[in-house]
Write a structure and sequence with these properties.
mainly alpha, 51% helix, binds zinc ion
Length: 81
Protein backbone atom coordinates (compact mmCIF):
# COMPACT_ATOMS: atom_id res chain seq x y z
CA UNK A 1 0.00 0.00 0.00
CA UNK A 2 1.30 3.45 -0.92
CA UNK A 3 2.08 5.80 1.92
CA UNK A 4 0.39 9.17 2.13
CA UNK A 5 3.68 10.84 1.15
CA UNK A 6 3.90 8.74 -2.00
CA UNK A 7 0.35 9.63 -2.87
CA UNK A 8 1.06 13.31 -2.31
CA UNK A 9 4.16 13.06 -4.50
CA UNK A 10 2.22 11.35 -7.26
CA UNK A 11 -0.46 14.00 -6.99
CA UNK A 12 2.22 16.68 -7.43
CA UNK A 13 3.58 15.00 -10.54
CA UNK A 14 0.07 14.69 -11.89
CA UNK A 15 -0.59 18.36 -11.23
CA UNK A 16 2.77 19.45 -12.67
CA UNK A 17 2.11 17.54 -15.88
CA UNK A 18 -0.88 19.77 -16.52
CA UNK A 19 0.75 23.11 -15.63
CA UNK A 20 2.65 25.62 -17.72
CA UNK A 21 6.24 26.47 -16.75
CA UNK A 22 5.07 29.73 -15.26
CA UNK A 23 2.50 27.97 -13.08
CA UNK A 24 5.06 25.40 -11.97
CA UNK A 25 7.44 28.19 -10.96
CA UNK A 26 4.63 29.77 -8.95
CA UNK A 27 3.88 26.44 -7.29
CA UNK A 28 7.51 25.87 -6.38
CA UNK A 29 7.74 29.24 -4.65
CA UNK A 30 6.99 28.64 -0.97
CA UNK A 31 3.45 29.73 -0.27
CA UNK A 32 4.27 30.90 3.23
CA UNK A 33 6.30 33.75 1.74
CA UNK A 34 3.04 35.40 0.76
CA UNK A 35 1.87 38.18 3.06
CA UNK A 36 -1.58 36.62 3.52
CA UNK A 37 0.02 33.63 5.29
CA UNK A 38 2.08 35.68 7.75
CA UNK A 39 0.08 34.19 10.64
CA UNK A 40 0.67 30.59 9.55
CA UNK A 41 2.02 28.36 12.35
CA UNK A 42 4.39 26.42 10.09
CA UNK A 43 3.05 22.93 10.83
CA UNK A 44 -0.68 22.74 10.15
CA UNK A 45 -3.10 23.53 7.33
CA UNK A 46 -3.81 27.27 7.17
CA UNK A 47 -7.49 26.62 6.43
CA UNK A 48 -8.59 23.53 8.39
CA UNK A 49 -5.81 23.18 10.99
CA UNK A 50 -4.98 19.54 10.11
CA UNK A 51 -1.32 18.61 10.58
CA UNK A 52 0.48 18.88 7.24
CA UNK A 53 2.50 15.91 5.99
CA UNK A 54 6.22 16.43 5.53
CA UNK A 55 5.89 16.40 1.76
CA UNK A 56 3.59 19.43 1.86
CA UNK A 57 5.93 21.30 4.19
CA UNK A 58 8.90 20.54 1.95
CA UNK A 59 6.98 21.97 -0.97
CA UNK A 60 6.37 25.16 1.01
CA UNK A 61 2.62 24.59 1.09
CA UNK A 62 0.52 26.08 3.87
CA UNK A 63 -2.62 24.03 3.19
CA UNK A 64 -3.47 20.33 2.99
CA UNK A 65 -4.19 18.88 -0.44
CA UNK A 66 -7.96 19.18 0.02
CA UNK A 67 -7.94 22.81 1.13
CA UNK A 68 -5.39 23.75 -1.52
CA UNK A 69 -7.42 22.32 -4.37
CA UNK A 70 -10.52 24.00 -2.97
CA UNK A 71 -8.66 27.33 -2.73
CA UNK A 72 -7.31 26.97 -6.27
CA UNK A 73 -10.75 26.12 -7.54
CA UNK A 74 -12.21 29.24 -5.91
CA UNK A 75 -9.34 31.35 -7.18
CA UNK A 76 -9.85 30.15 -10.74
CA UNK A 77 -13.55 30.82 -10.53
CA UNK A 78 -12.96 34.32 -9.17
CA UNK A 79 -10.65 34.98 -12.13
CA UNK A 80 -13.33 33.73 -14.48
CA UNK A 81 -11.41 30.66 -15.69
ZN1 LIG B 1 -6.81 21.71 5.17
Amino acid sequence: MASIEELAYEKCLEVYARQSEQEIAAMLRPQWQEAQFAQWDGVSCFDCGEDLIEGRLLLGRVRCVDCQSLAEHKEKRSRGL
